[in-house]
Every structure is written in structure tokens, then in C-alpha cells.
Amino acid sequence: MTQSKFECPACGHPAPVYDHGRKRIWRHLHFFQYEAYLHARLPRTDCSKCNGPPKTKKPNWASERSCFSVYFEVFV
Q1: DSSP class per residue in 61-76
Q2: Nearest to 50 by CA among 4, 18, 3
Q3: CA dihedral 2, 38, 66, 14 (to 10 degrees)
Q4: What's the CA gap between 10 and 55, in Å, rounded?
Q5: For the residues 25-29, what does the mean pLDDT come to?
Q6: Where are the alpha helices (DSSP H) in 1-76?
Q7: Is residue 2's pLDDT more than 70?
Q8: How many distinct structural domains can be found in the chain?
Q9: What is the pTM of this model?
Q10: For residues 27-56, b (16+ Cβ closer than 10 Å) or e, as one string?
Q11: Residue 42 CA neighbour count, 13 Å, CB half
Q12: Angle (CA) 44 16 48, round 5°
């Protein structure tokens, strides 16, 4: 069985998945009058080149350390 690989967030080298970290939630734009939230558990990579602690893959829908989606931040 092959193991999934993602680019390391620090160096860009393909690295195996360490685990899927804690569940995170981002506030998104409203759908009509309803509030919307994105729920995800982002993969963490275990890079052999960096030899540091596992690093979390950055989502493309949010800024780093933000609890809002990019679209929500632009709208507000």
C-alpha cells in the first residue's frame, strides 16, 4: 500500500502524511440568510529534509492563523 504525500509547507519537498490534526473551523460568507462554516482536518506532513516537528498543510481558502475564509475577509 502506498502512502499519501503532500508538499512540505516549509521546504516544498514531497513528504508522507503524519496524521490529520485537530478539527478546525473557518467562518465563510452567508448563503442567503444562513451562516456558513468550513470544517476540516488538515493533513500534517513528516518531512525528512526539515527534520522538525510535523507541519500542517496550509488551506487555500484561508490566511495563516485566521478563523475566516479569504472571501469572508474580503467582504468584511
Answers
A1: TB-TT-SBBHHHHHH-
A2: 18
A3: 10
A4: 8
A5: 91
A6: 70-75
A7: no
A8: 1
A9: 0.73
A10: bbeeeeeeeeeeeeeebbbbbeebeeebbb
A11: 19
A12: 95
Predicted pLDDT at 41 = 93
Q: How many residues does the chain have?
A: 76
Residues near 39 by Cβ (< 8 Å), separated by ≥ 6?
23, 24, 25
What's the grid cell of residue 49? Answer: 529534509
Q: Which domain holds residue 28?
A: 5-75
User: Of 65, 52, 66, which is closest to residue 11 (Cα–Cα)?
Assistant: 52
| Nine-digit cell string for 9 | 509547507
User: E strands along the chain, which residues?
Assistant: 5-7, 14-20, 24-31, 34-40, 43-45, 55-56
